[in-house]
Amino acid sequence: LFVDAHLSPGDSVEATPEQFNYLVNVLRLNEGAQILVFNGREGEWLAELSFPSRKKLLIRPREQTRSQPPAPDLQYLFAPLKVGRLDYIVQKAVEMGAGLLQPVMTQHVQGKITNLDRLQANAVEAAEQCGILSIPAVAPPVKLRDLLDGWSSNRRIIFCDEGEESHNPLPLVAGIRETQLALLVGPEGGFSQEERTLLRSLDFVTPIPLGPRILRADTAAVAALAVIQASIGD
Ligand code: SAM
């Protein structure tokens, strides 16, 4: 469970109403029950529940069970999709190792980011579910051109481009020397020809195919993240 508080033995953190509901009403835990908690910066802790009153629940860290691993470094650059797919893709990107989720506004974007807090909450939930101890950040949207203009060139952008002749991404991803990577997936309407030409002209961008078929943006993201994960083994 994610607790947004300092964790040390002897301390106690009061459960939020949502955490109270989940631990008491869903998991039916009671006095003395033990759970694993993390705060995204101090590793994982075994904690004990105590109820000073019927309506109050304290989470008491007892001992650290895992130290804080390095945060995942992969950046996931994505054109916003419609809300339902957006929740899904944030969840999948976190599960597949993204450490930063950066919405990118392109010419054909159909979705928009109306609620960053909701996406951030999805990232927290995905982190809890897949057992990572850091919380990937969901950044405010940027325009593609601004993103590229300010890009630090020691990080390579892997650009999913269905216009490639070959269909196999593996040799292209395997050939990347940089350890800092970003994945760029377009919107349901695709990148414009102008955007594709710009991206393919940049020396810090590697276009990759994802097979011979046109994938939905969320399918493409998961497919590309799987290729990257297989290639960097992380
Ligand atoms: N341009 C597509 C079309 O003509 O229908 C629409 C874009 S596709 C739904 C959304 C994004 O997924 C694309 O911008 C691209 O980044 C990625 N994508 C989809 N299929 C792909 C493929 N076969 N190879 C590489 N990227 C792909």
Automatic annotation (TrEMBL):
Catalytic reaction(s) noted: uridine(1498) in 16S rRNA + S-adenosyl-L-methionine = N(3)-methyluridine(1498) in 16S rRNA + S-adenosyl-L-homocysteine + H(+)
Span of domain Ribosomal RNA small subunit methyltransferase E PUA-like: 16-60
Subcellular location: Cytoplasm
Primary enzyme class: transferase
Database matches in InterPro entries: Alpha/beta_knot_MTases, PUA-like_sf, RsmE, RsmE_MTase_dom, RsmE_PUA-like, tRNA_m1G_MTases_N
Pfam families cross-referenced by the UniProt entry: Methyltrans_RNA, PUA_4
Record-level Gene Ontology MF annotations: methyltransferase activity
Domain of life of the organism encoding this protein: Bacteria
Family: Belongs to the RNA methyltransferase RsmE family.
Protein name (Swiss-Prot/TrEMBL): Ribosomal RNA small subunit methyltransferase E
Species this protein is from: Pseudorhizobium tarimense
